Amino acid sequence: MSAASDLKDFSCSDFGELVELCAEFYEINAEKLRWGNVLERRVDLSRFVKKFHKDCGTLTSSVQEAIEGLKEDPCIVLMTAHQPNLFPYSGVLRKATLNFVLAKKLEKRLGVRVINFFGIADQDFTDDTWVKSSQLPAVTRREGILTLDIRLPEKLTLNRVPKPPLDFLKHWKAEIEGWLNSAVGSVDRLSKRFGLPRLNSQKDILYGNFRAFWGMVEEAYERSTTYSDFNAFIISKIVNEAWEYDTLFSRFSECQQIFAQEFAYLLSRFREYSEFMREATELLIEKGVGKGVSEQEYKLAPFWYHCDCGSKVRLFLE
After folding, report:
1. In this predicted model, what pLDDT tens digit does every residue of 17-46 receive, in sequence order?
2. What is the pTM of this model?
3. Can you list the pairs that 263-272 forms with residues at least 24 positions away whose Cβ atoms lie under 8 Å?
4. Cβ neighbours for 61, distance < 8 A, ≥ 6 positions apart
5. b or e along 122-145 (b: 16 or more beta carbons within 10 Å of the residue's beta carbon)?
6. For the chain, which end, N or C, has fewer CB atoms within 10 Å of the first or last residue's CB respectively?
7. How far is C-alpha 67 from the chain's CA centre?
8. Residue 114, SS3 per DSSP
9. pLDDT mean across residues, the chain
10. Are 26 and 110 in contact (CB under 8 A)?
């Protein structure tokens, strides 16, 4: 039985309502959420989390304390996840912020330890646009955008791709420095033209921020061997070092084995899952908004098969 079925409506209009909805979900389903070997699996998760943070160099005192919290009972793990994008755009980091703040509010509301966990989807494919490119607004450029990108092998999982050559790092740094100089110069010229105060001290802050960020980029580069780790380490360094959050990170490729029971649950309920998917697909196609959605989508298993070659395939269940 799905615990979610006990709640009629998950939509909310503000953050306070979201906190209350999550708290209500926990209070209704507290006993169900403790079925099985939950504590044992959280202990297993703590090992993979610790490995990531040691590899990344972000095993801070607050992270270490949160890792120990995984071994407590009762304990709630509040999870979000994302691909390790190249120089992640703000939406990725907003997910980390929302998860962190929500965990703190829930912990206070429920009186139960709440651990915020960020899963790194390092087994996603290389063909996603944002895992291999990043954009900055640049009003002086023709399209109004500065794009940093890299060519990656097609149809390979991110954790099987080596980190970029050092020349790419030097090129990206030069591009960002040029972008920053151009932006600061434009503001300075406009300020002078309209008799406004010059940037001065703010300029020092901007360049200081970039130096601090690039220091994290270089350390992430030194510590990583794969493309996914390079990007994931940057995310962790921003969240755990610059912001000092106690967010726990782990690679899904390592910790996915912990969720074997959840995979089994999805398989056991596949007929229901498949029927809902079939109805939704037919509705989308009927309304003419289902471009790119296969009519056979409902037959696909709700997870991928990962091959030793470094690729992955969808599975049809009959």
Report:
1. 999 999 999 999 888 777 678 889 999 999
2. 0.87
3. 263/303, 266/302, 266/303, 267/301, 269/2, 270/301, 270/302, 270/317
4. none
5. bbbbbeeebbbebbbebeeeeeee
6. C
7. 19
8. strand
9. 90
10. yes
